[in-house]
C-alpha cells in the first residue's frame, strides 16, 4: 500500500530569519485513498504537521517513510516561497507560464478551473502582480490539475466567494475518487463530506485521530474544537449568598444548569449536588455530555 509514515519523528521547520518550529514525537500515517482533516485552534501546529508530512521538515530523529512521490501543498507558506523565488531570481514569469505545464496543459479540468477562478483575463499578467488571493487560486489550479497522488490543502476556501466555494467543493468531491486529500480548515461549515479521517492538533502534537468516526465520536471532537476557539468565562459569584451556598456538607451545587454551543444543547434543566465524602461516577453514551458536565 502506498503511504507516508512518520515514526517518532523529531525535527523542525525553518521560519523567517533564524526562527524555527519544532516537531516532537510525531506518529502519523496517511494511506492513499484516505482523506484527512486536521482540526485545532489557531497556532496549534496544523500547518506545520502537513509541511512535515510532505517532507519539508528537517528530521533530527525518527523516520519519515514514503512511497508517494507525486504530491503538492497549497498553503500561505507555499505562496510566500513561490513569490520569494520569483523575486530572488528576478524572474518576470507570466501567469500562463506557471499554469500551463507539461503535466496539465491538455487537461479539461485545467480549463474548468481557469473558468471557475476567472483566470482567463489574468493569463498574460506578470505573476508578481497578482494579489494574495489570486496567487492562492493559481496554486489551487496547479495542484488540482497536475495529476498528483496526494494534495495538501491548507484553508483552500479562503478568499473565495460563496458560489466559487460551492463549485470548488464539487470539484474536490469528484477528484476525491482519484486523489488523496489532507485538509487544514478552521471553519467547520467547510468540511467536505468525503473526509474519512480526522486528526486533532494541539501545541504541535497530533493528540487524537479518528478513522471513519461515528456521529457521536465526531460530535465530541467538534465540541473539543469549539472549546479551543471560545473564550469561556464563569459568572461572578453572588456575594450575598456565597456563605449560605457552601455551608455544611455541600461542596458543589448546580440548579437547572444548561450548557449549549451554536445550535447544540449539551444538557439543560440539570440539578446536581455534591457533598463532602461522596464519590461519583458519571455514565452515559458518547456525546451525552459527561466531559462537559
UniProtKB/TrEMBL annotation:
Single GO molecular function: ATP binding
Pfam families, per the entry: ABC_tran
Keywords: ATP-binding, Nucleotide-binding
Domain ABC transporter: residue ranges: 4-228
Listed name of the protein: Molybdate transport system ATP-binding protein
Gene that encodes it: modF
Amino acid at each position: 500500500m502506498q503511504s507516508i509514515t512518520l515514526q517518532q519523528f523529531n525535527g523542525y521547520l525553518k521560519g523567517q530569519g533564524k526562527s524555527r518550529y519544532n516537531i516532537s514525537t510525531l506518529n502519523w500515517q496517511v494511506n492513499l485513498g484516505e482523506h484527512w482533516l486536521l482540526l485545532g485552534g489557531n497556532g496549534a501546529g496544523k500547518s506545520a504537521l502537513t509541511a512535515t508530512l510532505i517532507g519539508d521538515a528537517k528530521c533530527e530523529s525518527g523516520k519519515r517513510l514514503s512511497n508517494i512521490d507525486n504530491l503538492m501543498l497549497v498553503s500561505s507558506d507555499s505562496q510566500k516561497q513561490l513569490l520569494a523565488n520569483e523575486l530572488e531570481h528576478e524572474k518576470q514569469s507570466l501567469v500562463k507560464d506557471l499554469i500551463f505545464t507539461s503535466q496539465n496543459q491538455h487537461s479539461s479540468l485545467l480549463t474548468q478551473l481557469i473558468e471557475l477562478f476567472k483566470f482567463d483575463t489574468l493569463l498574460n499578467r506578470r505573476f508578481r502582480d497578482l494579489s494574495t488571493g489570486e496567487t492562492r487560486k493559481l496554486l489551487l489550479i496547479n495542484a488540482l490539475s497536475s495529476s498528483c497522488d496526494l494534495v495538501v490543502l491548507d484553508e483552500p476556501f479562503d478568499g473565495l466567494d460563496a458560489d466559487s466555494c460551492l463549485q470548488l467543493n464539487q470539484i474536490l468531491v469528484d477528484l476525491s475518487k482519484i486523489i488523496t486529500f489532507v485538509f487544514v480548515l478552521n471553519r467547520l461549515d467547510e468540511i467536505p463530506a468525503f473526509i474519512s479521517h480526522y486528526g486533532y492538533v494541539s501545541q504541535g502534537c497530533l493528540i487524537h485521530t479518528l478513522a471513519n468516526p461515528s456521529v457521536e465520536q465526531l460530535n465530541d471532537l467538534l465540541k473539543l474544537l469549539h472549546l479551543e476557539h471560545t473564550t469561556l468565562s464563569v459568572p461572578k459569584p453572588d456575594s450575598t449568598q456565597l456563605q449560605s451556598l457552601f455551608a455544611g456538607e455541600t461542596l458543589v451545587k448546580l440548579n437547572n444548569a444548561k450548557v449549549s454551543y451554536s445550535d447544540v444543547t449539551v444538557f439543560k434543566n440539570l440539578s446536581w449536588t455534591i457533598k463532602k465524602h461522596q464519590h461519583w461516577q458519571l455514565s452515559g453514551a458518547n456525546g451525552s455530555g459527561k466531559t462537559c458536565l
